Each structure stands twice: as C-alpha cells, then as structure tokens.
Amino acid sequence: MMTGRSYPITHVAKPLDECKSVRWENMPSGCSIELPRIKGSNSSLYRNNELYPLIYSSLRGGSYSDGWDVTNGASPGIDIVTSKGTPVQSIGDWTVVQVGYKFGIGNSITVRHLYNWSYIYSSYSHLDEMYVELGDVVAEGQLIGKVGNTGTTFGQYGNHLDFQLTTTTQDFYPYSYRDCNVGLTYYDMVNSVMCRSYMMSNTVDPIAFLESQGSIKINNSLNTTTKSLAGSIKNKLEKAATTHGSATVQPTLIFDALEAKPTPPPISKPIEIIHSTVTMPWSKLVRDIVNYKSHQYHIIWLNAQEEAQVKRKFVFYIKIYNLDTKQLTKGVLNDRIVIRDDKGIIAFNTPVIGYIRDGIIEVTALWLRPWYTNLTVEIAGQQLGSYGITLQ
To answer: For 252-276, what is each residue's pLDDT tens digit?
Structure first.
C-alpha cells in the first residue's frame, strides 16, 4: 500500500470576501482553514455542501458551466480557490521538468515522479510566485510556489490553483488537448464531451489519486521492454527486502515518503574534495571521495558503463563514514542525498536518500532510452560525485 501522498495545498482561505481578497500572509485571524477533503473521491456526497463547491470550483471531468458535473465536461484537472500567496507544495519527490510562464495558465510548474515504474507529472498553474528551477530535485511537501491569478483568470477573485496529473509524456504540461483536433477552442473542448476520451487517456483524477494514496491504476508511459526490465529490478529489490528485513529503500516507487526527511540545514563550511571524478577504464572502479561536515562520502561507480550496455541497468554504491567515530554511518542523515541525471533518461530506485541502514546504500539505475547523460550525487545542493555514461 502506498503512503505519504501530500495534497498540493494543506490550508486555504475561507470562501469569504474578507479572507480570499487579501494576500495569505495578511489575512485576518481565523481566515485560514484546513483544506476540506473529498473523502473517497465521491464528489456526489459534497456537491450540495455549501463549502466544498466554493473551494473546489472545478473537478476533473467538470466544465466551465458546471465544475461539479463530472460526467458532461472535460476539465483535465481541479481548481482550488484560495487567497493569493497561499503556499503550494509538491505532492511527491523527483524532478522539475517544466517551469515558467505559459499562455492561458500563467506561471506553471510541472514535476515528474516515478510511480510503480511509470511516469506521472504533477502540474501547478496560475502561480503568483515560483521557487524552483528547471532540473531541480524536489521532495514531497516542499514549498515550490504560491497561489496567484496569472494567465487567464478573473481578477483578484480568480486566485486559485489549477492542479493536474498527466500520465503520458508530453512536450507541454499540463495536458491541454493539443492532440484532439476538433476545431474547438480550449474553452469549448472543456465544456463538451468531444475530447473527453483524450482526458481519460492522458490524465488521472487528482482527488482519486490522492485519496487512494496513489493506489488507483494509471496509464503506463514506459515501453514493453523497459517495463519488463523494471519489473525484474523491482522483483529483485522486493526479494532483497524480504531476505534482509525491512528495506531502507522502498522498491515499488520513488514517490514514497522517506523514513525521515529532515530539512537540510544551511551549509556551515564548504565541501572538502579529497579526489573527485577519478575516471579509470570502464571495467575498473570509478570513485569519488568527498568530506562534508563530519562525514566522508565514497561514491563507488564500479563498471556502470559495461553493465548499462549489456543489461540496460546498473548499480552503484554510496558509502558513508563518520569522521568523528571512524565508523560507518547508520540511521537518519542530517542532509539528504539527491541522485539525478541531466537528461532525465534514467529511473533510480531511490533518487532522494534520508536514511541509511548499514553505512552503505545500493542504488539501481534503469535506462529509459539510449543517450548520453551525466549522473550526479549531491548533498545540500553541492556535488559529491559525477559520472558520464552513454548507452547506444
């Protein structure tokens, strides 16, 4: 069972003019309330509630005419009405793939997550402020922006979050019916059922996804070969977890909450590089050794290039020593380790590490498509090690 799904907003302004017309940080006392939940994603139970339709102005499948009639429209996401400046957080871990101003949706951020070895993209639009950049690795619950009314909205009372989950890889997020060529405007497509099948094929209901803790079925965006390899890796990881007890890394999805996610403290001193990116022949060991604060980090790349060419996957290791005790580090890490590649073509079983069981972490990497990329291991925004690799 998947756990730890965070809503993009935790609290909203009461749907009163004296609350929602004022910036979040300036609202009068008592204006903030916890975001109401549509329990079990059964909107029919809340349709006639005096509060819910004023906060959720539109649901997936609704229209501009009736945002709560989820059978006769084609809205691909949900709208959450609140005051300008309401904090917006990422619903899960992984990489920012699009960020910036776009016609219609204004300031928008899209984060790519790996869920059951499939991609899912969470998009946050009409933002007033954005706090991430393209390529940033974010954590579940991390502040990424604030609610606004940029793009096509309606004055100060148009402050809301447009939140969408896309399940297919696109060149533009959030999903916007560019493949439904029926000669209608976006407004008319949302207000009709002519493109509804496209909505069903390319998006998933955000409320259903979050309320089910991510257990609902989504479209798989990986090809058959990649899915087969991913399944093999997943099975091995699950077997290892069974053999060795409770696993440090949850193998079934990157989206899962970490055992511990402390906020990285400010860097108190620069990282000391002992020797960095020492590249030997591919079949030999490639290792980075870095001192940071009271710990020493060993990045052991092994023969990643050869493994990748043959198996389309490879493993590498991160070993951590406590410089004060001269022992391997165990337990919660004060600074989270982030793993990524600069082309977004590799899926890692654990891209964000906040806990270490026995002093060493095994990372499994799965190629999604051939290309050259550069892998990096970072802590508190500073690079511990890097590795250039090519798969043809």
So the answer is: 232 222 222 333 333 333 444 443 3
Q: Which residue has better confidence, 291 or 222? A: 291
Classify burial at 235, counting beta carbons within 10 Å of its beta carbon; exposed 0-12, middle 13-18, buried 19 or more: exposed
> Are residues 331 and 354 in contact, defined by beta-carbon separation less than 8 angstroms?
no
Q: Establish how many alpha carbons lie within 13 A of residue 131's alpha carbon, considering only the half-sphere containing its beta carbon.
A: 12
Residues 62, 73: contact at Cβ < 8 Å? yes
**What is the spatial distance between Cα 226 and Cα 231, in angstroms, rounded to a whole number?**
8
Compute the distance between CA of residue 313 and CA of residue 354 in angstroms, rounded to an integer. 23
CB 126 within 8 A of CB 149: yes
Nearest-angstrom CA–CA distance, 156 and 247: 49
Between CA 380 and CA 338 the distance in angstroms is 8
For 35-53, the pLDDT digits (tens) are 999 998 899 999 899 899 9
Cis before 265 (ω within 30): no
* Secondary-structure class of domain 11-211 per CATH: mainly beta
Q: Against a cut of 0.70, is the pTM above it?
A: no
For residue range 224-238, list pLDDT tens digits in order.
444 444 454 445 444
Q: Strands of 352-356's sheet, edge to edge? A: 352-356, 331-341, 371-379, 382-391
**What pLDDT, in 10s, does the model give residues 336-346?**
888 888 877 78
Indicate the pairing of strand 327-328 with strand 331-341: unpaired
**Predicted local distance difference test score (pLDDT) of residue 259:** 26
Write down how long the chain is. 392
Rg (CA), the chain: 22
From 211, 185, 197, select the one nearest 76 (Cα to Cα).
197
User: Which residue ranges does the chain devote to CATH 2.70.70.10?
Assistant: 11-211
